[in-house]
Backbone:
């Protein structure tokens, strides 16, 4: 094949100037067979450098977010997307920062774009569901919470959806999800508290008591919440002596925890 014709075929307008120059140099040396390898090596190295730079920007954005420098964190995320426009994690980071900046018009787009790029990761579905929930778009929130569980059926995802249903007044449906969360992570004391609170709402006091007690049996050194929840329930049932004892134990646990944190500083 004529060299000029080969050169013309390879000169794609959308290619970078660097790749075009490499192609010409290779052809001039009559090493057509190595063209693809050299070009692929260049593209791979460039992509790797872009990925590293993008990750550095996102890491810095997270640091700035913790420092509550949200505007600068936003800029870093946008810079990351300039380098790697198909990095779905950059869209997730940007969306979460925009939530803090209350730029609601862009938040939805960020999470939807992240889902479009990587539809198999549950995180953007969860963040989008949380956003819809805060916007009182409950039908969409329900849909995306269910998608989160479908993609990643973890204890945490079941628990989050269960709490969402409780707040929407769907206690009976919520019970199924809260029980499933405990089944998946039976050593998480907070999950027992959540189910206990739901059962208390349903006036199933004996069952609620069992779950509160189970919570502090699992973690007796950090059981002040379970004790206080149980004390509240006993107070409502006019079991005053038991309520006072629970409050005392809960407050003692809380004081011990505060002292421990103070001494560890």
Residues:
């Amino acid at each position: 094949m004529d060299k000029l014709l080969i050169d013309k075929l390879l000169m794609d307008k959308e290619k970078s100037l660097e790749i075009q120059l490499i192609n010409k140099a290779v052809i001039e040396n009559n090493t057509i067979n190595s063209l693809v390898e050299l070009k692929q090596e260049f593209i791979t190295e460039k992509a790797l450098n872009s990925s590293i730079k993008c990750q550095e920007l996102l890491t810095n954005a997270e640091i700035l977010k913790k420092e509550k420098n949200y505007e600068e964190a936003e800029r870093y995320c946008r810079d990351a997307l300039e380098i790697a426009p198909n990095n779905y994690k950059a869209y997730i980071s940007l969306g979460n920062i925009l939530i803090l900046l209350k730029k609601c018009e862009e938040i939805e787009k960020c999470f939807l774009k992240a889902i479009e790029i990587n539809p198999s990761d549950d995180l953007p579905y969860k963040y989008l569901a949380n956003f819809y929930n805060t916007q009182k778009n409950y039908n969409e929130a329900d849909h995306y919470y269910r998608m989160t569980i479908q993609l990643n059926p973890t204890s945490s995802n079941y628990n989050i959806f269960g709490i969402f249903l409780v707040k929407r007044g769907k206690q009976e449906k919520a019970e199924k999800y809260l029980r499933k969360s405990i089944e998946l992570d039976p050593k998480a004391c907070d999950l027992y508290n959540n189910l206990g609170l739901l059962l208390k709402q349903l006036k199933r006091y004996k069952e609620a008591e069992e779950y509160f007690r189970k919570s502090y049996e699992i973690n007796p050194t950090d059981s002040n919440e379970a004790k206080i929840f149980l004390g509240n329930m006993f107070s409502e049932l006019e079991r005053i002596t038991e309520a006072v004892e629970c409050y005392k134990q809960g407050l003692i646990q809380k004081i011990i925890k505060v002292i421990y944190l103070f001494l560890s500083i």
Notes: The CA atoms of residues 216 and 223 lie 5 Å apart.
